[in-house]
Write a structure and sequence with these properties.
The chain has two helices and 15 strands. By secondary structure, the protein is mainly β. The chain has one domain. It has a five-stranded parallel β-sheet, with no helix packed on it. Strands 3-7-10 form a three-stranded parallel β-sheet. 38% of the residues are buried.
């Protein structure tokens, strides 16, 4: 899960600038990442391939806004069951759709950008960062919308330690829909510490 990251140039969540860097992303969620210039989401600026399988790329922003080009920048893309904001008619052969994933709550940087600004040592701008609740809610187009056969690398459980497959098919995104938790019994948003633990 990639949330609340920022780049001063390109690729707020991921910037692969090596000449032949292949990215293989499976059941990931990219949300509310930002770039000052281009592509707040995933940027692969080289000759490598970007493979998106069962991923959500949503609400990432750059100077142009939050459209499709603000989510993804690539030369070669292989997409399968990927939910990407701004996609209305995906290029032939690319398995993308643009319906709202209906997250429980979108992340919010509090209006002052993600993280702390080192230029203002007396103010912690990161104190009001809210990483959201990126679990799917009832009616999401991402529920049971993943690949027919779950990818091996998806693993048997999601980031909430719930079974990776609940319905007839794997969900799109990092978190599997839990009907009981969508009735108002959420365990709360994933914390900053949770994201740090995932990175470590």
């Amino acid at each position: 899960m990639f949330v609340g990251n920022h780049s001063e140039k390109e690729g707020g969540a991921i910037h692969a600038c090596a000449h032949n860097c292949d990215l293989k992303l499976i059941n990931c969620t990219f949300a509310a990442n930002t770039a000052r210039l281009l592509c707040g989401g995933i940027c692969n600026g080289g000759e490598g391939k970007t493979t998106l399988t069962n991923c959500i790329v949503w609400a990432n922003a750059d100077r142009a806004g939050t459209g499709e080009t603000s989510q993804l920048k690539f030369k070669y893309l292989i997409a399968s069951h990927a939910c990407v904001q701004g996609v209305s008619e995906p290029p032939k052969g690319l398995g993308m759709f643009g319906e709202d994933p209906l997250f429980a709550q979108l992340p919010d940087d509090g209006g002052d950008g993600w993280g702390d600004n080192p230029k203002t040592p007396d103010i912690d701008e990161g104190a009001n960062d809210y990483f959201g609740d990126l679990r799917l809610t009832a009616g999401s187009a991402c529920i049971d919308a993943g690949t027919e056969e779950p990818p091996q690398l998806a693993g048997p459980i999601d980031l909430d330690a719930n079974n990776r497959i609940i319905g007839p098919r794997i969900d799109v995104g990092a978190l599997e829909f839990q009907a009981d938790k969508c009735a108002g019994t959420y365990r709360g948003p994933l914390s900053r510490q949770c994201f740090l633990d995932l990175i470590q």
